Amino acid sequence: MADRSLVMIRRELPADIDAIRAVTAAAFRTAPHSAPPVEPNGDPGEATLVSWLRDDDSWVPQLSLVAVEDDVVAGHVVATRAYVDAEPALGVGPLSVLPNHQRSGIGTALMHAVLGAADALDEPLVGLLGDPAYYRRFGFVPARPLGVSAPDPAWGDAFQVRRLTSYAGATGTFRFAAPFDRLSAEAVS
Asked: Looking at domain 7-188, which CATH architecture does it have?
């Protein structure tokens, strides 16, 4: 087995924007639960979502991270401002890795990096919608037993939260950044 190159996790740079869109589109193009394209025959909705998030007040530049291997952006994760009622929180997603780099540890490294960066910024809580079997390894648990309600009750245990060091027990309804609602509205129109 050949040695894999070292992967560097770092903040997104302006020169990474096109590569991030390409990574996100490739990662979600064949995903079973990806958002439909916003434009006919366009990229999956997640690729557009990242652009909308970048242009929104919820954007936290320190929490848009890329994985670079051999000078190629191979993965991306972003966390943006969210709320549990009036208390600040973060929403994670999308998490994207190029298909030919998946199952190599890049997604895991990105998730650990964004959680560590969020904790270093004294963020209290992170929420996401995803597969509980995958995200459990990062300390995510179903939100409902902690008193945090999903934006959509139909999400059930797929809506999960991760408490960070400064978590003080906030309860209420979780609200992702507005572009997530915009993507949902586009999907049904």
From this structure: 3-Layer(aba) Sandwich (3.40)
